[in-house]
Design brief:
Elements lengths: L9 H14 L4 E5 L10 H5 L7 E7 L6 E4 L14 E6 L1 H10 L2 E4 L3 E4 L6 H14 L1 H14 L3 H18 L2 H18 L2 H18 L2 H17 L3 H17 L3 H18 L2 H17 L3 H17 L3 H17 L2
Parallel strand pairs: 1-2, 2-4
Antiparallel strand pairs: 3-4, 5-6
């Protein structure tokens, strides 16, 4: 908890919190089990939300049989939601979750709905997952690696990925081994250990080819491209990112295709091939717009603004800055 709450990760936390309580496409946020007073205290971040605040449904546990619903603004003490619209529901949370589970509906086609009455107690899925986790040590260490990677503790992440990879290797789970190697490559790359990253991405790539995992193969090429870019080997970075792009197109991964265009834009940008960089950034922009990935569109505009400033086209640079501001204004 202390690591997650550290100042070095405050920007990442703020981006997530802003998405949850302000910028995301969803209209409401259901909060369950947040006390607003523990060490992982996000109160100041919540209070900083300006416009476009989401409606909050706050579930507060009460052992009493009587259920109460009140305006979210009424609680004065340690309430970060005083400026939000919403309700605070006091109830038995176990009963609430069970009722919530049983009220789910599934979409059939585009518009038709039908109710699902689960014959399984809602706790069974959690219990089953817990049992799987107890029995699967490789998965335990892998998930731990993912958690430490997500909070930027890459050394700790590597430690757990390595243990997980050794376990899956012993059990002959070759696909799991490939995934561990790829994640080790990503972690070493994040540490700036690019040569080490290449070793693991190549290990993962070899397995991906053997088992015919095209998506995994493509991801390995992406990782290799990023590592070689870090080493300043632009030719190899471009070569691997183009191989990744080719596979993304073959398997119909449009979102992945756009990311590859973005990677190639960066490769050409850093290597000084500005026209090529602009070409690939614009290709990425088209797909990001098609798929509604506004956050990536903003990233493309940021890089285009930088590149036009570098080549002395200040009017164009300013144009893309304004486009970024327009997107921000639309999501306030």
């Amino acid at each position: 908890m202390k690591a997650v709450a550290s100042k070095t990760l405050s920007d990442k936390r703020m981006n997530l919190i802003r998405y949850l309580f302000s910028t995301g496409k969803h209209k409401k946020v259901l909060i369950l089990g947040y006390s607003c007073s523990d060490e992982f205290d996000i109160t100041p971040h919540i209070q900083s939300m300006g416009k476009n605040q989401k409606e909050i449904i706050f579930i507060k546990h009460s052992a009493e049989a009587k259920e109460e619903i009140e305006d979210i603004k009424t609680q004065e003490h340690k309430n970060p939601f005083k400026n939000f619209n919403g309700k605070r529901i006091r109830c038995d949370t176990n009963k609430f979750i069970k009722d919530f589970w049983n009220s789910f509906e599934d979409t059939i086609g585009e518009y038709e709905y039908k109710s699902i009455k689960s014959k399984v107690e809602w706790t069974k899925y959690i219990d089953d997952w817990s049992e799987i986790l107890k029995e699967n040590r490789a998965l335990q260490y892998f998930i731990s690696g993912l958690i430490f990677y997500s909070i930027s503790d890459f050394k700790k992440s590597i430690e757990y990925y390595e243990i997980s990879s050794e376990i899956v290797k012993e059990t002959g789970h070759i696909a799991g081994e490939a995934v561990c190697y790829m994640n080790l490559g990503n972690a070493y790359c994040s540490l700036g250990s690019f040569k080490k990253a290449i070793i693991y991405h190549e290990k993962s790539l070899k397995i991906a080819k053997e088992i015919g995992d095209k998506a995994g193969e493509s991801n390995c090429y992406t990782g290799l491209g990023i590592a070689y870019l870090g080493l300043g080997n632009f030719k190899k970075a471009i070569r691997y990112h183009k191989r990744s792009l080719k596979i993304k197109k073959e398997i119909g991964d449009r979102a992945g295709e756009a990311l590859c265009y973005g990677d190639l834009g960066v490769d050409y940008h850093v290597s000084g091939s500005y026209e090529k960089a602009i070409e690939y950034y614009l290709k990425a922009e088209i797909i990001f717009k098609e798929t509604g990935q506004t956050h990536y569109v903003k990233e493309v505009y940021k890089y285009l603004s930088i590149i036009y400033k570098e080549i002395g086209n200040y009017a164009k640079a300013e144009e893309y800055k304004k486009k970024i501001e327009n997107i921000k204004a639309m999501h306030r």
